[in-house]
Structures are given as C-alpha cells and as structure tokens.
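Saturday, quiet lab. Running sequence design on the structure tokens for the scaffold JK sent over.
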C-alpha cells in the first residue's frame, strides 16, 4: 500500500489540509471548457483546504519567440512541462490529469501517467473529450498501455462511461461543476426581437456555420432578431464572410474571446442558446445556459442527450441541419409556455452539477487511489 501522507485524516472528512493534489491541465487563456474547469476545480479544492499545485499544459512559450517556430516549438513547451511534472511528483500525493483526445493525450496525459508511475504516485485520469470513440478506435493499444498504469479513470458523463466501456476500460462518472453563484437566473429586459447566443469557439467541430444559416431563416420571420457568437478561433474571417453572404451581418456580433465572468451576462441577455456542435461530450455552455435560465436548442450528438432531454430540458435537432434548428427556435418564439417549461426544468436539472453534489464523488476517488485494497 502506498504511503498516503494524510496524517490519519480521511480525504472525505470535513477538512483536507494534509491532501496535496497535482492538477495537470490547461488554464485560461484561452477560456475553453477544459481550461475553465481546471481553474474552477483548483479554486474549489483550495476552498476545502486542499493544497493544489497546477501543472499547466498550455503554459506560454519561453522564450516568447519560440511560438513562431512551428516545426520545433512543441519542444519549447514539452521540456519545461516534463520537468514540472517530475518536480511536482516529489511534492504531491496524487496527480489529477485533465485529458483529451489526439496529440493532447500523447503529449500531456500519457507522460503524466508514466512520470507518476516512476515516482510512485497515484494518478487519476479525468478524460473529457467528445471524440473519444474515434480516438480509441484508432489508438486503443497506445491508450491502454498508459491507462493500465493509471489508478482511476473518471469521466464527466454517462456517454463517455459507455464509450470507454465499449473498449474494455472501466470509468467512474464525476460530472462537470457549474458555479451557480456566477451563472444564475436573472432575466434581462426583453429585446425587440429574439436574441440568440452561440457560446463555442470558432472551430469546425462546433459548426458555427449552421448557427448562421439557422439565424438567416429565423430573421426572415423575425427581422429584428440578433445573434451573438461568443468565442475565438481560426474560422472567424470565414464565418464573418458567410454572415455577409447570407445578408445577416448587421444582426450578428462576433465578440471574440470572452472570459468566464463576462459570459454570465451574455447568457442573461439572451433569449435562447444554440449549440451546433458536430461532436460533443458534456458542453459547459449548455450547463451554463440552463443555470442562467436560457432555453437551449442543441444538436443531438455525443453526450448531449445524456445531459438534457428533448422537449423537457432542451430542444434537440440533428447535426448540420440549419432548417430544423431554425424551426426549433421559431417554435420557442411562438410557444412562450414551452420556453418557460424548458427554463424551469433546466434550472432544476442543473442543481446536480453543483460543487456540493460533485465534491463527495471526487474526494471518494482520491481516497480510493490513495488507499488501494
């Protein structure tokens, strides 16, 4: 049995002053879902008296000019990262690794597992990528070689639990956490027309083009409708050109990067939120919308139907179907009682994702890996 170093205290108890966690993951900026969850988890654990050391996988390049060296810049990030992992492993009791698919797994998650193994420290893998099925189908052997050295695998949804189970990996569900002090229901004054919000980065996987095409159809019925697209990414110029081509550019606002604090007000100024992603797991934007009392229209992909129920807590449509997304938006405009019902059910649903409810699950995982049978 490993020496827990807990001085006789249980990590499930009232205080956790002796618990030292190495939290490995991205941090803002940019304010993506995983980066925000990493930052929030560190803060919440510290509020419990846990000593948290963050090991950042997206730390700024040093020297800064290395970012321009596309062929070798990964080395300028990897070498300091590996050194930080090795050093932290000498101080912490558990590594908690925020993991994703593709190169993110191979470059950041797998090295953390192997270094923890070499240093004799337990490691919890917190896998969060919506592309898990495709990734595991290609890389099951490599992923399995690393996961066999991990002490626990946790995922935020039943969807990912089922995906990993399909490939023979046992996972425990520890949901994402929503901050209901920041994301809360405070209705804003009604707008002249329906106000739509997209809260995803401008990347192909999130299919913001479908949101623009759906908005054009909505605007044909509601000329004063507006759309805010809150996020940054490589497709901005392409999406701005599409808005002009569709004749709706005057009704669309591209905010660029928005931090977590400012996002709450954007939700509260919206009448509904559109999630057009082609692949997804447990999108924070959906949880945040529910918490702010904003009805959600989303694609019915990946883990989304594990998170919301069509017709009860959201309206779900097929991916890459702007006509059906527009029809769902127009239905909510025409049926205020339905919008109110979704709003009320969503506010109830989101309560299960508070720190109060997630905390015992996570601390139980830490306890289990520190005191294995």
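Result came back. Writing it out in full:
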């Amino acid at each position: 049995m490993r020496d827990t170093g807990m001085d006789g205290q249980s990590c499930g108890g009232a205080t956790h002053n002796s618990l030292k966690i190495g939290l490995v993951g991205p941090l803002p900026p940019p304010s993506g879902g995983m980066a925000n969850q990493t930052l929030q988890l560190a803060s919440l654990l510290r509020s419990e008296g846990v000593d948290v050391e963050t090991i950042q996988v997206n730390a700024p390049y040093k020297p800064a000019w290395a970012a321009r060296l596309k062929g070798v810049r990964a080395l300028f990030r990897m070498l300091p990262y590996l050194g930080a992992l090795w050093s932290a492993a000498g101080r912490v009791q558990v590594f908690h690794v925020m993991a994703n698919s593709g190169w993110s797994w191979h470059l950041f998650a797998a090295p953390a597992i192997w270094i923890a193994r070499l240093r004799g420290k337990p490691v919890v893998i917190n896998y969060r990528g919506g592309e898990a099925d495709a990734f595991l189908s290609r890389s099951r052997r490599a992923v399995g070689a690393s996961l066999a050295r991990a002490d626990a695998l946790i995922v935020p949804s039943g969807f990912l639990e089922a995906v990993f189970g399909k490939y023979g990996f046992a996972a425990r569900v520890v949901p994402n956490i929503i901050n209901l002090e920041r994301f809360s229901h405070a209705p804003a004054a009604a707008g002249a027309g329906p106000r739509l919000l997209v809260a995803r980065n401008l990347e192909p996987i999130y299919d913001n083009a479908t949101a623009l095409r759906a908005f054009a159809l909505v605007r044909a019925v509601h000329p004063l409708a507006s759309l805010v697209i809150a996020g940054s990414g490589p497709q901005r110029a392409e999406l701005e050109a599409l808005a002009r081509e569709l004749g709706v550019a005057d009704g669309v606002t591209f905010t660029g990067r928005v931090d977590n604090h400012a996002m709450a007000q954007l939700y509260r100024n919206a009448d509904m939120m559109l999630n057009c992603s082609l692949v997804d797991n447990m999108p924070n934007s959906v949880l945040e919308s529910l918490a702010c009392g904003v009805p959600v229209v989303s694609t019915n992909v990946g883990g989304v139907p594990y998170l919301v129920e069509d017709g009860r807590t959201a309206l779900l449509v097929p991916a890459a179907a702007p006509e059906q997304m527009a029809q769902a938006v127009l239905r909510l405009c025409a049926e205020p009682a339905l919008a109110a019902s979704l709003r009320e059910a969503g506010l109830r649903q989101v309560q299960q994702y508070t720190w109060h409810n997630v905390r015992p699950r996570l601390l139980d995982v830490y306890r289990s890996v520190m005191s294995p049978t």
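Notes for JK: The CA atoms of residues 209 and 289 lie 20 Å apart. The radius of gyration is 21 Å. Ask whether to fix the surface positions before the next round.
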